[in-house]
Amino acid sequence: MKTISSDEFYQKTKQSNLTIIDVREKNEFVNGHIPNSTNLPLTTLAFNTKSLSKDTEYYLVCASGSRSNMAASALSKLGYNVTNVMGGVSTWKGALIR
């Protein structure tokens, strides 16, 4: 499983269009999320992998990096190309979408 620091991730989002999955619960997501991210809560992730492609690189975020780390570990074992964003949304340098 790959990881990336919040700073590196922020810089990378400025350079290219990334596929970002926010694994926080829906109520957390609507209160502020990283632009262009999709909400796929960790609690339902096991039921939603059919919507994911093993050919796509995904960047996983949560509030602090803990839940996204669990999600990244599980998805990586299933053969998905995932990177955990350390620090999560709480360390995001840009504006959040509400």
UniProtKB/TrEMBL annotation:
InterPro entries: GlpE_sulfurtransferase (IPR050229), Rhodanese-like_dom (IPR001763), Rhodanese-like_dom_sf (IPR036873)
Ranges for domain Rhodanese: 14-98
Pfam families found in the cross-reference section: Rhodanese
SUPFAM superfamilies given in the database record: Rhodanese/Cell cycle control phosphatase
Domain of life: Bacteria
PANTHER family according to UniProt: FAD-DEPENDENT OXIDOREDUCTASE, SULFURTRANSFERASE YTWF-RELATED
Protein name according to UniProt: Rhodanese-like domain-containing protein
